[in-house]
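Re: that chain you flagged

S.,

Sorry for the slow reply, it's been a week of failed gels. I finally had a moment to sit down with the sequence you sent. For the record, here it is as I used it:
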Amino acid sequence: MISFTVRLTFRSDDRKEIHEILRELTRLSRQEPGCVTYIPHVVEGEPDTILIYEQYRDEAAAEAHRATAHFAKYAVGGLYQKMLLRSVEDLTAIA
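Prediction finished late last night. Pasting the structure tokens below so you have them in one place:
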């Protein structure tokens, strides 16, 4: 299993639209057969920063996620167009 977080920062004016995009992207991502967990969060004290915790069965499942029409529409065509900053952290489980 692979896990990672994606941290995105947006303008306050875009907050409502970003949340709408994330609700749809989350709904569709969770339906993917290789998706184990997909949970977007608002960072406490930073209302314009989103942290998405993602887990996939394997690297192929993560790549399949990035190749979906909903990823192209909502992530690339939506979130990526509005983000000010983006960082990804790959995680290794201890237990």
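What I noticed first: The longest helix spans residues 15-29.

Talk soon,
D.
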